């Protein structure tokens, strides 16, 4: 008897998944959350900032 491509024993697959879940440690993704504010002031106009960005991009291409 031969098994076709992709055939598997479903109970074996479910058991493997259950075993994998036991080994996984929980990760707290909120461990390093910070509440706060960030502000900055700039006397540069939007046009000046866009011009500076363009100059930086040109430098990267050279």
SS strand fraction: under 5%
| Structural shape | elongated
Instruction: Work out the radius of gyration.
Output: 28 Å
- What value does the average pLDDT take? 76
Distance between the termini: 65 Å
User: How many helices?
Assistant: 2
Helix content: 40-55%
- Helices and strands, in order, run as HH
What kind of sheet is the major sheet?
none
**Low-pLDDT residue intervals, each spanning 5 or more residues:** none
Total beta strands = 0
Backbone structural class: mainly alpha
Characterise this structure.
- 48% of the residues lie in helices and 0% in strands.
- The protein is built from two helices and no strands.
- It has helices at 10-23, 46-61.
- The protein starts with 9 loop residues before the first helix and ends with a helix.
């Amino acid at each position: 008897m031969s098994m076709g491509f992709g055939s598997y024993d479903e109970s074996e697959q479910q058991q493997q998944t259950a075993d994998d879940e036991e080994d996984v440690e929980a990760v707290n993704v909120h461990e390093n959350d910070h509440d706060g504010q960030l502000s900055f002031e700039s006397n540069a106009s939007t046009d000046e900032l866009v011009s500076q960005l363009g100059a930086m991009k040109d430098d990267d291409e050279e």
